[in-house]
Each structure stands twice: as structure tokens, then as C-alpha cells.
């Protein structure tokens, strides 16, 4: 106020003057307002701008020589100068025809460094702070930078962080600034509680959430990191779960996260109102579009009277109708579901209203938030582009596709008015997430390769281009080795064609008679037919080598091509290497809801192959497999599945080779070795020309393990047969060519580990032949298909 008093006194002495004195807090005092409204200055005098420069000050004010100005111009000029961050004090006064600007400069930051940070690297932290080298030293900006650093650490689960600063003068008006970081311990989530849930237990609802309680593997999965946006996404996931299971009135009343600072841990409480459970009532389609038959559209519906109400089925029905009507030449047609709720019998009837809709075009698709994924990777998931007719169902389908990619933590699509009444701007907001993974898996195979291990590196969004790359190396104690490299371009030549190749090399000496090695490459192209149906064409070329392993036979001498082996196996060694050239075609139908832990849906594949375009194999082969999943009890999270597979091979030449015939066991028929059943020549497996298998399984959460660990138990029963033979056996004795069924029962443990799905199974054959090879324990590192 002393400075303000001096300035007011100066104004009283000068009849045509006006001024503003600004404190460090930016509070302005105005004087002689009436006079200032009419003031005109002839020159500008800048004082105190030694490092910033006079021109920089003049360029940041709104007052110009020869122009009249007001108190609002003075106020705006002061604000602009403070906003640069270069000044700790700004004073403006008018003396005669001169505008006097007096400034006190902030110190300049010579260098910005970070100390104590191990979990977040310097480069990433520099992106969060606004204080930059050769910029002003500003206390308020530094305080904001400290909060940003804390937010960055909270994003990786470290809310216990402490940030201080150190300032070291290095020259006149210059300082070095250091952010000193004490990272603290990881902030855990020790509790996730639900209030108001009666239909489903806490464990079942926890499985729906992306946020998980902390466990011994949380340092790998990072799913125990509290994030407000992620909690909002979990709320939406709960809504969709209940809406798809009949609870149309479901509400999330509140979701609260409480931080216990003493224990550095969060407790989350989600309060819900489930409401009543509904079934579908009467289902109908009404159309006001001329030429569209409503009765024909009813056949496209996923909703059926008497079924449990499901918002997902309604959405699928709307999209099916929209696609059919659009294909009939009505791109602006709109499908609106109208519900008819009956509170007495808890049913909801749905009538799908189809009308012409308003004419609207997509003016622009605006993509925001993608820091890594390139724009075109997002745009290509839309079936519409700029200038096309706007269709809400197409937008919904694009949203599901983007979510299914696994590139983003959240995907939100909204619309905004365009430049005209019939123009719409589609706004896509995404948040990128890490898409690379490194996995190590290990297990033990009884009667096979013994201890086995596999390491893999996988990237689903290579360089933000949406390309898939995987490199895997594995091996066992019995000199077995596997090498695999895969690459997939999901949009080959700009079309929705997933083209790629696989390179592989496998070798093993686990067989007592010979060593085996194969290497080759597969080239493939996959095209979608519908959202659930796809077709793949592939070509595979591989070379197979069989060599003596140097082991000792029953006579105490090393194996040779003339000892202890059936004639087909002698030929395998003597005529090695063998070559195969195979053209194949597959059709896959997939409605499974979750590839890693399916609860509902059908996965079915059919493949046929022809070998004979060069190489040593001549055959035509067909085979297929189908597996159906269904939740038997939502309350107990009990999942059932049934599977069946079959195949047949026909020789297109004189005979088949051993490696041309089917070999089953282990994966398809648990309780038996990999080549454990089927025809044999002098005890050596020949495989078979025909096979069939059936399986039934139920899996459930193990009660002694936290559900967040994703460890489940399973019980199963398998049955199968492998019969027939077209291999030239020479004079060898052949057995097991008849259709004899084998069966087994067992139990297993499933673990959705950070490295991928793992299975540990123990099975006991209950029906087998004397010459079958039994393998009770099996470990596998793959999904359930």
C-alpha cells in the first residue's frame, strides 16, 4: 500500500496522468479513471528489463503510442506481462505523454534436474513439468510442477511420494533447479468392498473390474494402481455386466476410494442398487420405411421372448437391422428400441422402430488423446469416413472394435454439431496403454521333454501402427528346442485383411529311437466375413529331419537304422530330410466373450489342406473343432464347456508318411502321451487316418486363493479314438488300427498369469489299450482353444 500511496500522490500532482501499481500477487490499483479514459501517450519507456529485453515487454502490452487507452488496457497489459512468468513485479504509470513500465525480473532457470527418481525416468518427468531451462524461475509454476510429478507417480501406484526442490545460484540472475524425489513405497489396494449386492458375491463382481486388490504379482500386472478414471470405467463395466444379466434397473449409487496415509493403502467401496431381474417379453419390429419388410427383419433379432434380458442382445439386434436396411439403400435409416416394462411379471417387451431418420453426414472424425497409436490405426476401425451418411450403429460397432484391440484403457466416442445443420463431427477420445509384454513360463512334462521353459516377447501395437510381432524361444532338458517368430499386418494394402507370416524351428530328442527336427515358414491372409466369422488362406513349407539319437537299444549296442525300429521309421531316417508343401483354408466362427477366460460363446473352426504341390507328401486332409462355453452359475462363477473335434486324411498318392497322419493325445486326450494312442508298428506310433474326440469340463474359483490371482480349479472328462492307417509298413507288425475308444477323467488348475494362460492337469485313463502310452501330468502354456 505504500507504493500505491506514492503512486496516487504522483497522480494528484499530474493533471493528465493515470497509472496502475501491481503487486506480486497481481492485485491492481487504478487511479484517475476518468482522466485515463481520455489519455493518449506518445512514447513507451521500459525500465528494468535487462535480460528479457525492451521489445519483449512492449510486445506484451495492449497500449500503443498515438492511441487512446483506458484503465482496462492498463489492467490487461499488467496481466499479460505477469503471464509471461519473467517478472516478479510490474508497475505502469503515465507521466505526461510517456507510459512508464517498471519491471523486476524473475531469475532464469539455467538447468532443470531430477534426483531420487528410479521408477519414472527423467525424460518422462520433463514432459510433466512446465519449468524449462532458460525459462523464468516462478514459484507458482514450480508448485504446480510438484503436483504434476506427484500425479505422475500416483499413476503408477505411488501416492506416498514426497517432492522438494533445491535451488543453486550459478551466475547473476541464473539458478539451477533440482526436483528432489522420495518415491516411497507402492500404494496398495487392500480392500474392494461391495454394498447392496445380493444376486452376485463380491468375488464375482471383482472379476468384472479392471482394478484389483494388491497381491504378490501386482508388481507385474499393475492392476492394483488406483486411478479415478479407471474406477469410472469399472462403474461402467459393472453396469454392462448387470444390464446383460437381466438387471435393467441397476445403478451404481457411489464408489469411494479412501487413502489410509498411515498404511499407504486404498480401500474402495462400491455401493450398488441391483433392482429386479427381467426377462424379455413380446418382441416385434415395426418399419415406416417403404419397401422394408418388418417380418423379414425379425429373423435377424438376437432377442427372444422368455430369455433373460440383455442389453448386449438388443444392441446386436439393432446393428443387424441397421446393416440390412442400409444395404437395401437406406443409409439414414434409424433403429430405435422401445421398451414395454411389465412390473407384475418382471418382463420387458421390446419393439424395434425403423424409420427413415434425419439426413446427416459425417463432416469430420476428430481423434484425441492418442499419444502413441497413429490416427489411421483408429480411423480404419470405422466403416464410415468423412462425407458418408452418419449412422449411430456404425459408431457403436467401431467403439467395440477399438476396445477389442487392447491398445487403449478407455475409448469414448461422442458427436458434436458440424458447420451445418446436416453435418456431424465424430469425436474419438482414447487413452493409450502399454501393449508390449515379456513372458516366461516353465513346467514339467512327464515322459516327454522333462523340465521345459519358454520365454517370449510380444508387441500388439508395434510403433503405434497396429502391427503384431512375437518372438519366442523355448527348450527342455532333453535337448528339445523351439524357435518362433510371427508378424501380422492387420490391414494389408489398406484392406481389412490380416496378412502375416510365421517362421519356426523345432527340435527334440525325447524319442528313444531318433532325433527330430523341423523348420519352415507359413504365410497367411485372414479376411472377415462377418463380425463373428472369418476365413484364412495359408501356405506352409517345412523341412523335416530324422536322425539316430545315439542311444542304446535292447541289445546293448547303439541304435542303427536296422535295429529296434519299424520299417517306416527306418525310412524316416534313411530318406531324411523330408519336405512338405501344404495349401490350407480355414473358417473360424467365434462368439466367445473373453479369449483368456471365456464364460459364454462358441468357438468353432474347420480346416482343409492339400499337400502335393512339390515336396514328399500327397494328401487331402479335413479337420475341425468346436467348443461351447456357458456360465452354469453366475453366483458361484461356475463355467461349463463341451468340446468335440474330428478329422480325416486321404492319400492322393500311393500311401501316406508317418508325419502325414494325425497324432493325438495329451492336448486332445488328457492322461495320454502326445503320440499315446493309435496304430503302432512294432511299438512305434504311426498315427491314424481318422480321429474323433469329445470333452466336458467345469471350472470354478479355488476357495483358498484370492480371486484377484485368477487361479481356478477344473474337473474334466475326455474321450477319443484314432484309427486307420495308410502308411506302408513293410514287414512290420501293426496293431491298433481299429476304432477303439479311450477315455480319461481328471482335475486341473488354471492360472491367468501375467505371462499368459497356464494349465496344470492330472488325468487318469479309465479306458485304454495295452500298447497306449500314459502321461498323467500335463503342463501347457496356451489358451483353451
Q: How would you explain this protein's 3D organization?
A:
The chain has 785 residues and is an alpha+beta fold. The protein has six domains: 104 residues, Ubiquitin-like (UB roll); 75 residues, Ubiquitin-like (UB roll) (Roll); 86 residues, Ubiquitin-like (UB roll); 77 residues, membrane protein fhac (Ubiquitin-like (UB roll)); 71 residues, membrane protein fhac (Ubiquitin-like (UB roll), Roll); 260 residues, membrane protein fhac: a member of the omp85/tpsb transporter family (Porin). The chain is built from 14 helices and 38 strands. The strands form eight sheets. It has a 16-stranded antiparallel sheet. Strands 2-1-4-5-3 form a five-stranded mixed sheet, sandwiched between helices. Strands 6-8-7 form a three-stranded mixed sheet. The longest helix has 17 residues. It is globular and about 120 Å long. The N terminus is likely disordered.
Low-confidence stretches: 1-38, 551-559
Q: Into which percent range does the helicity of residues fall?
A: 10-25%
Return the average pLDDT rounded to an integer.
83
The fold-level CATH name of the largest domain is: Porin
Biggest sheet, open or closed, and with what strands and sense? 16 strands, antiparallel
> Can you tell me the CATH class of the largest domain?
Mainly Beta
Overall number of structural domains: 6
DSSP strand content = 35-45%
Major sheet strand order = 18-19-20-21-22-23-24-25-26-27-28-32-33-35-36-38
Q: Count all strands and give the number.
A: 38
Shape: globular
Q: Which CATH architecture of the largest domain? A: Beta Barrel
Q: For the terminal residues, how far apart are their CA atoms?
A: 79 Å
CATH homologous superfamily descriptor of the largest domain:
membrane protein fhac: a member of the omp85/tpsb transporter family
